[in-house]
Amino acid sequence: MNANLVIGVDLGGTKIAAGLIDRNGNVGERIEQRTVTTSQRALLDHLAAVVLSLPQEGIAAVGFGIPSRIDHEHGIALGAVNIPIHDVRFADEMEKRLGLPVAMENDASSAAFAESRLGAGRGVRDLVVLTLGTGVGGGVIAGGTLFRAHTELGHMVIVEDGEPCQGACSGRGHVEAYCSGRAADKLARELLGPTANAHDLVEQRHPVLASVGHHLGVAIGSLVNIFGPTRVVIGGGYGVAAFDQLLPEARLAVLTEALAPSGQDLSIVPAELGKDAGLIGAGLIAFEDLFREA
Ligand SMILES: [Zn+2]
């Protein structure tokens, strides 16, 4: 089948972004709407309506990046923290509603895939992308291929019995409890007053960001020891904004925690694709999964 155009969808806790994506990852017409979270059925119906509101001519498939762990073997979206998705045959449900082939991937993995193909991870065989937004997500490219198990890099333990994690997560000391935008909002309220947020910490170049950088570096050190990336890309609104202030302490921690010479050789860079990374990645994954050229 001659497929040159798909629709990529980035499903977030607060908004849905969808756009036309060509094989090179160029974004055409796009749309953004608030996420409907009243029920799973309402959410799936709304997602279909968003996709169908874009031009359908020449569209070969739809790729979804969703904030859920995904069981690819059985085609099931297992569960999400902030939206009503639970044990659902997500791709089947969307194919029924759209009449088009559907691919799905975790939203952070989708963004990581886009950065690896078109952004700050271009040409890197072994890559880790960490997205510091409301939560912390991540994706791994191993040997040039997206690692597609249901990983949750943001829920890696970096402090045993540490700070309680967020949302539906019952764990403690996870990366997300220290390095997410929401964790920074909490620090800002404690340090600067009840109306302050992460943005104020970054704007003031607040020294507490050094300790956040340390925690981030500890996480990166372990990821280097597990996956052996030669580059780590830091994305997400908060991650990119705070990048310069997190980096010095993060680097020091990586040198301590990662076995030599991986730490010394590692490059740590900010993401390049901005807020469209998720929908571009979801579109590229649809091409890869459904129309891979032999
Ligand atoms: Zn957690």
Brief account:
This protein has helices at 40-52, 90-98, 107-118, 175-179, 181-192, 198-203, 208-227, 237-257, 262-265, 277-290, and strands spanning 5-11, 15-22, 27-34, 62-66, 68-71, 76-80, 86-88, 102-106, 127-132, 136-142, 145-146, 231-235, 267-270. By secondary structure, the protein is of the alpha/beta class.
List the helices and strands and how they pair.
Elements lengths: L4 E7 L3 E8 L4 E8 L5 H13 L9 E5 L1 E4 L4 E5 L5 E3 L1 H9 L3 E5 H12 L8 E6 L3 E7 L2 E2 L28 H5 L1 H12 L5 H6 L4 H20 L3 E5 L1 H21 L4 H4 L1 E4 L6 H14 L4
Parallel strand pairs: 1-4, 4-8, 9-12, 12-13
Antiparallel strand pairs: 1-2, 2-3, 5-6, 6-7, 9-10, 10-11
Helix pairs in contact: 1-2, 3-10, 7-8
The structure holds zinc ion.
Explain how this protein is built.
This protein is of the alpha/beta class and 294 residues long. The protein has helices at 40-52, 90-98, 107-118, 175-179, 181-192, 198-203, 208-227, 237-257, 262-265, 277-290, and strands at residues 5-11, 15-22, 27-34, 62-66, 68-71, 76-80, 86-88, 102-106, 127-132, 136-142, 145-146, 231-235, 267-270. The protein has a five-stranded mixed sheet, sandwiched between helices. Strands 11-10-9-12-13 form a five-stranded mixed sheet, sandwiched between helices. A three-stranded antiparallel sheet has the order 5-6-7. Helix 3 (107-118) crosses helix 10 and helix 7 packs across helix 8 (237-257). It is globular, with a radius of gyration of 19 Å. It starts with a strand and ends with a helix. Zinc ion (ZN) is lined by residues 155, 165, 169, 171, 174, 176.
